[in-house]
Fold each of these.
Amino acid sequence: MSLSHLLLSLGILCEGCRSLSLERNTVPLTLHTPSGTALFFKALLDSGLTTEAASLFATPNGTPLLAEQRYELTPELEWLSQIVRGLPPTYLRTDSLGPTLRIVWLELDYLHTLRFRLFHRDTTWAITGLDYLPWRRPAIPVLSPADE
């Protein structure tokens, strides 16, 4: 068998393996879905935009946080950003608590989990609670409904 036949066979084999690989489902980074809101929040933390990430938070009844409340969240969001920045999402699950309430579990790099509580207001979803769950350790609340 000549070298060209060997290279051709190897190329066909590699192309066949690539075409058989599973396609990933992508979730759009949009505020119109609960999972999209969680991923959008993660993207803002990855970019270091903690003040913009704080604007996604709301009170338990869905009203946006006041500027002072968002400012007070900045240290916690900067701390969280240092931990989860650059970690790839490995698992995403949404649980329904009612027509306007959802829980989103976002696992990052198999070891870190963010648990979002979201409220549907108008046409978008707002984060009303956020917990950081390190692997095999108790949850650390970043924003809990009792904070408001």
Amino acid sequence: MKNNIIIVIIWTLFSLLVSGCSRNEGKNLSEKSDMFYQQSLDLGRKYTDSLKVAKDTASVNGLLERYAERMEQLSYDFPADLDLELSEWQNEQLIKVSANLVRVANARFKKVKDSQSTDSINTLD
């Protein structure tokens, strides 16, 4: 399950660079790309910090799901093809922040304890 969530996060990050609907009229693409870059960077860093203090796997999963949802929503706040306006350095920074988030999430999955020591699904015999 954690691999699926991580795949969703990575897919969301890259898909948000390619898609979106414009709601910020009147600003040129360069200004919009800078805003998009900064908001994406801030979001990634905030969720990475939150993951560092997650107490159990349910918290880690919840944070990863909310991060994916927030990144997807962010992509809809900006025009499509905005990634073409990002510099190579900006793209590299976003990739580094995303890779760090995934690294921290994997480390937390290994370190935190589950809130329940046994399987929470009971089967009926």
Amino acid sequence: MTLDRYAIFQRLNVAPRGIFIVAMHIEFSGTLVFECQYDPEKREPFQLIFEGCKHIACRWNSEAATSPDVADVVSMFLGEGNYQEQAIIHTDLFEITLSYQRLIIQKAQVVWSDAFESALQSVAQE
């Protein structure tokens, strides 16, 4: 299943608003974590966690006129896990392309995993 940025709002059960990236880090296990916020007024936090990354490419926008404290997401294509389709995250500061095994979208106590949804679809088909 290919996901776009609106899938994030569906998984978090919130209305579509802006998305901002405030930090990102790569773990030695191949996990890339984006610390994000949605809703420009309330700045509600959530995480995009890409596990099992095999390829990560980043291009920085050296002409960005904004403060590097936060990156405003311009477009987001979350691709598909199990290395089926790359994710592309384009912000005003950078663009990242990555292939990954599994995606987790996490907000406080709300956690969604593409592996969990696949399991639910399998049960529903039985």
